[in-house]
């Protein structure tokens, strides 16, 4: 096999299907109006931008996005920010909302059913390989290397996997592998995840990334539809069956993570809880963030509104504020306030005399004069009244807002309206 030639051609023979229909209920009120993949992240992006950017940067430019739950925000983002692919060159992002194609009484019943209900569309692309992706994780990965590994291993299905702390794997599929990376057992979201051999505090978790040989996937989906005792889910049904048939191979993220360096730990985050979302955003404002957004060789693409530069002005007394370890996006205006460890998304206004720390402030928010905000996530469009104090009295915070066990306080418009 000519590896370089094969690696270049495989993305052209592949279709990526991004599963973006989930609500993400663990994000609490952040997903009341939008699906989890449409949640804002990193100052100017949406969560789904990372999976889509990995596709484009890997050379995969035939992409279907399957949506269901409260998809308007997501669809609008894709239409505005991802319309640059060229249809005349067989490049596209197809939007595949749940539309009861197979049964007029049923929406998508699970991840595998979502693809089965669009199987005629998938077949019309005539792919040799189908890359199935979750649209709600943060990472940078070269899928062409995973495709090459799939072909060289002769697998029916290759499962992307990552080492995670053992008890964090309760929200993931967990697998056992042999010395050749063949998966010998697969457990979906176990309450007591099994540890890796020799690593009692670590489990091997599924990233929700699968490469299938196309004909094998069609066979699996068709046969699953004949089974009355199915959850219509990849993790619960399809992958365990492939494991039983001995055709599943694990692909560790370290084999294809970006940047291509053994000295750089592979980065992957499930930002599915308020705590994890808050922590992953704030890490971007640290001195040396684990996720490099400044890598020009692997850019993260997104829809970007045309906004004026961020501006810092004195407060109403003419004094300047202080800013440290803070990301500030376009359209923001900060007037003489102190900001430490914060991520400000687009069009945020901070009035005079505020003290803000460990804060993630989503787009179009306004922080009134004299506020003290610590360890908060503020939803899009929230107007914080002057003088509000959050993060100093845990009991008061829990009465007014949503407060996690870790002390992160989520503030939404609806919560403020009830004060």
From TrEMBL:
Occurrences of domain Glucose-1-phosphate adenylyltransferase/Bifunctional protein GlmU-like C-terminal hexapeptide (ranges): 308-411
EC number: 2.7.7.27
Molecular functions (GO terms): glucose-1-phosphate adenylyltransferase activity
Site (Could play a key role in the communication between the regulatory and the substrate sites): 68, 107
Keyword check for NAD: no
Pathway note: Glycan biosynthesis; glycogen biosynthesis
SUPFAM superfamilies, A to Z: Nucleotide-diphospho-sugar transferases (SSF53448), Trimeric LpxA-like enzymes (SSF51161)
Record field: catalytic activity: alpha-D-glucose 1-phosphate + ATP + H(+) = ADP-alpha-D-glucose + diphosphate
Binding site for alpha-D-glucose 1-phosphate: 108, 173, 188-189, 206
Subunit structure as annotated in this protein's UniProt entry: Homotetramer.
Purpose: Involved in the biosynthesis of ADP-glucose, a building block required for the elongation reactions to produce glycogen. Catalyzes the reaction between ATP and alpha-D-glucose 1-phosphate (G1P) to produce pyrophosphate and ADP-Glc.
NCBIfam families, per database record: glgC (TIGR02091), PRK00725.1 (NF001947), PRK00844.1 (NF002023)
Protein name: Glucose-1-phosphate adenylyltransferase
Source species: Keguizhuia sedimenti
Gene of this entry: glgC
